What does this fold into?
Amino acid sequence: MGKGPRARRPMGNVVLRSEERHISIQRQLADLEKLAFVTEGDCDSANSLNSDNLDAGNKQACPLCPKEKFRACNSHKLHRHLQNLHWKVSVEFEGYRMCICHLPCRPVKPNIIGEQISSKMGAHYHCIICSATITRRTDMLGHVRRHVNKGETKSRYIAASAAKPPKEILKEADTDVQVCPNYSVPQKTDSYFNPKMKLNRQLIFCTLAALAKERKPLECLDAFGATGIMGLQWAKHLGNAVKVTINDLNENSVTLIQENCHLNKLKVVVDSKEKEEREDILEEGEENLGNIKVTKMDANVLMHLRSFDFIHLDPFGTSVNYLDSAFRNIRNLGIVSVTSTDISSLYAKAQHVARRHYGCNIVRTEYYKELAARIVVAAVARAAARCNKGIEVLFAVALEHFVLVVVRVLRGPTSADETAKKIQYLIHCQWCEERIFQKDGNMVEENPYRQLPCNCHGSMPGKTAIELGPLWSSSLFNTGFLKRMLSESLHHGLDDIQTLIKTLIFESECTPQSQFSVHAPSNLNKQEECGVFIKTTDDTTTDSHSAQGKRKSNETTANLVKRQKTDVNTEHPPFYYNIHRHSIKGMNMPKLKKFLCYLSQAGFRVSRTHFDPMGVRTDAPLMQFKSILLKYSTPTYTGGQSEGHVQPASEDTVADRVEMSVNDKAEAGGCRRW
It folds into this structure.
């Protein structure tokens, strides 16, 4: 097999050069027919390249088919062949037709005997933009469509004189970054930058700043850099306390990250050598603010090769494909932060995708955001347990665009076993939306409906509950670490996330804001987390387990397990209720703040939640929740001028009215169950 038809020179008015385009790409059918004429002077050179396409006499051979596919024939038969077999199935792009080609342009795989497969399997299209060879027409249409979505509409074989559009410079948290055109559309750019993720970046920065107070320097990894803004903020504001590595697999993104490093006066380290290019951009008297190592490799490979103290995963979509690699070499007491943007599956809009990615069964509930956070934590916990590591959840946030989970890594099989025990199934009632985690044990229970506090199964026909999960059943917040994050946000002037961090602290304590004041902790040098006292570097003495990520001793691990068992009662109650979802028809609800006080006066733990602005996190059963809500609601005809109950009602009357309200809602929405 020769070099193919790319170097042929057909005679006529059309002169094609090898650096312009393939011969199967033409504007008109007549141009394709002219390729069949070859002069006698060029016969020798043409025979040396593709002798199968020529025949003696006045017969003409198809320029896009070998001799075995189509023999030389007269011009009338050739015209029909070109029109029916090549031209009608072509792909059009900007006035050009990419016709199907049967020449041996692409390598074919040998069969079992060792011979080449038939020429019919070698049919393909040549892309006018990137010169790729595509076998199927539908795949070629999708291939061209992806080029158009990325803005690649200029062919490499047609010289484009237009200059590239200038890159825009954006500023966030005193960090300048260059972004490509269409930077906010991931389908049209390689380096995606989402301004709506600013809250996510600030939360991760405060997490790293709090970890930097424990030990330094920290080996930090931003596995999916894109523009590199997150790693740039770490290096610029934390200085020598961190050693930042920014990774990306795309070559254009790596180039953009290096340009942004020089834009922020940061040195780029490539393969342990300082990059000396473009250092002249610094003015006299200015110094570099730090060093950043930029790598170009697959994130899984990088995390297998090197160990880190802090790893942040923010891929486009789900992050389950990178969890095993992240926990393989993470140091002891290190932190792994995971950002998942596949909210369609996590928020139960695509339940089959959630089953495929996370191996769990979910439905749309009133507490779907916390359900999504517990799904991600469960996936993280299983990945850590496979590497003989346990986790302690520092905080979990689920907002409109993302789900962020931050965990601390605890090495050892004992911690891994304790973590695996916290992954349980959830029983959810589809009538009243009461929920409870299944009891521990391997024995099959005869009637699992007995675990639910409600009596919907006895009063309603058919099956009323569904099993969700597996989910993370333990706490989602660590109060001590959140207080340190709040202190770091005050220190660095991050005002946007201070309200959110305060809400997380209230939620972790399950305390109303009126009964709890958030200030900087009195003893920041010694915070209790995971049953272990974590000392910062400002303290004069350091524990053996908190220095440079070394393994904890067996005694410390044993004390940790014992302390975790005794701290179960202090955890916040799981899930929350939406006050509007459980409102009573014909009644005006009390204000949310007053309703929290009413629940607290009744002896229940209560707080607001960041998952839902109208959500109430409490340990009260749903029946008691509805009873108190009805007790302090006013009839609609009073106009809501006064709150509180007008006439005292007995507890039996309130319970009956609550049960009637539940039954009415169940009958109205009975189709949901089927």
User: Anything to note?
Assistant: The longest strand covers residues 330-340. The mean pLDDT is 77. The CA atoms of residues 169 and 178 lie 4 Å apart. The two ends are 64 Å apart (CA to CA).
